[in-house]
Amino acid sequence: MKHSFQEHLQRLLGNKLLLKINDNRSTMLSVKWEPDCTKVSLHRIFLDAPGNVMEVLACYLSQKKDSVPKEVRNYIEESLKTLDYSHKVDRSELYTTGDCFDLEELYDQVNHEYFSGSLNLLITWFGKKRVSKSQRSRLTLGLFHDQLKLIKVNRFLDTQTIPEFLVSFVIYHEMLHHVCPSYVDAKGTHRIHTKEFKAKEEKFRYFDAVQQWMGENQNALFD
Ligand SMILES: [Zn+2]
User: Fold this and answer.
1) Ligand 1 centre distance from Cα of residue 133 (Å)
2) How far is ligand 1, taken at its centre, from the CA of residue 39, in Å?
3) What distance in angstroms lies between residue 107's CA and the mean position of ligand 1's atoms?
4) Tens digits of per-residue pLDDT, 181-214?
5) What is the pTM for the complete model shown?
6) Which residue stretches of the chain have pLDDT < 70?
7) Where are the CATH 3.30.2010.10 domain residues in the chain?
8) What's 86-222's CATH class?
9) How far is the CA of 48 from the centre of ligand 1 (A)?
10) Strand 38-43's sheet: what is its strand order?
């Protein structure tokens, strides 16, 4: 597989090629143009790339351009969505039990109620329980790591003054990132909270209560 792939790229490139196929999460494509050869590290996603992407890639590799062509970037972006590195997550580093909320329990409830228990994602607390006022304006309530299939909920929510429905909503929001993947529109804008996403978000049972609570307490949380 790798051999014929290299031959194929070599033929398109018409230059000496030193190819490495990698399987790490950060290097999708890296190139070093040297006088006598081109050194390339490609993520394994390129082993399945269609012909037109390969041609654009070969053209890029042979011309020493500054920016990666759009077709190649789109291909990387699409492929990233299908990558699953969840097996690389060290489960002993996931913390779900909190002082007030058990993330696993809330996740299971949300998964059951909205997704018929079909989602299989990891979840953990992250960050510090106490944050200074100056840090609060930059706080992220939750995160979703696509390739790790991992939801992270900010630990500062693990306190008595936070209603349970808010924590459940943060979890639900991050789960929707898995269900409604982002995309790049025709103008090249990366759309993350899509129309479909927002419509689904409103289906949350306590959506109005969340909005109201945020409206009344956002200052206390974030200022
Ligand atoms: Zn989001």
Assistant:
1) 23
2) 37
3) 16
4) 777 666 656 678 989 999 999 999 999 999 999 9
5) 0.73
6) 1-3, 133-138, 184-190, 220-223
7) 86-222
8) alpha beta
9) 30
10) 17-22, 38-43, 29-33
